[in-house]
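Thread: "does anyone have the structure for this chain?"

Original post by V.I.:
We have the sequence but no experimental structure in hand. Need at least a predicted one for the grant figures.
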Amino acid sequence: MSESIAVIEQGGVLEIHIDRPDKKNALTAAMYRAMTAALADASARADIGVVLFAGRGDAFCAGNDLRDFMAGPEGGAAAFAFIRAIAAFDKPLVAAVQGLAVGVGTTMLFHCDLVYAAPDARFIMPFVNLGIVPEAGSSLLAHARAKAAALMAKPPQALAATRRLMKGDPAALTARIEEEARLFQQTLASPEAQEAFTAFFEKRAPVFRRG
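Reply from O.Q.:
Generated one for you, tokens below.
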């Protein structure tokens, strides 16, 4: 596990905590890999029936760590490996969201079965503003835990079948994720993205060439 991802097990529920509160839980390649590994472990274990995502501190997740992404292609590759894993995950996913949920902090929630948002939750998807394309609360955590525990008490085979019916054919989703991954990596290396990222760090408005 990454030192910024904590995994807790309780009563058949595996909790994945994004634990980098000093950076608003911005995700690095190592953190993505740790979450992907935790999902693989939960999928393979019969004693784990539900996964719960939470963010520690006053934010759920501020999206990608831009400095980590600018350092090389590993960030993008790790991000899409996680997105593929969460989209294909075969057990119920629950999320407890407080404060900022930026970029992937919002899009990952689309693949969760239950999402509980605190009154201060803010969902932001700034992809185009950064020159790229979209990718895939503590006081709220007790409530989300209770709902995750309730899922564990349900008949597992009926629950799994119902979830498959609700999610539909996964082929279209998989194809769209692959297309997003291709374009994301392409736009990440573009002059537009480089200017947007630089402007973000320099706290100024970006200047884009047109025509």
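V.I.: this helps a lot. The radius of gyration is 17 Å.
O.Q.: and Residues 44 and 73 are 29 Å apart (CA to CA).
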